[in-house]
Amino acid sequence: MSYIFIPYYSATGVVERLASHVARGVIMEGLEARLCEIPSLQKVDALEQMNDIALSLEQSLGVIMGSPTRFGHMAAPISAFWDRTASIWASGSLVGKPASVFSASNTVTGNQATLLSMLTPLLHHGMLVLGVPNEGGGGQLDSLGAPYGAYTNEQNDQADLPQWSVEQAVVIGRRVAVLAKRLNS
Model pTM? Predict the structure, then answer.
């Protein structure tokens, strides 16, 4: 149980690339990063797979979830995943675990809305939500200052991610790992 769980849904590969930078931040702090792609709802056994994935959620020291933006909201597979966690919510097994979120959208406002929508399930589960701190806090906000989580506006899966979004991803990975270690020492 010494890992940070990083479930994500990535339709184009951009969120997956951002997830790898989140994982790098976790690893920098000496914890294992377990990346897990949430299946598309088009897959026949997607809901059964989500039940198995939920077990990793419970057994982790912390969670950092990623999603592309869909009309200012998390993608349907991420929402469906959280819908499968009612028994976990009832058990309270996620209460007090550190968590954060990351996203990809064409627009800053789309990212902000998506990140906020992804925070809601974390708060309902009683998790300790961490964002991207401003200067002096070990992170770097972009010029528009969205502290809710890491994100990128890059949508081309072949293009390099902007350096500021890579830095944000590493920062949330490190922040969740640091707090998880403190809480479990």
Answer: 0.91
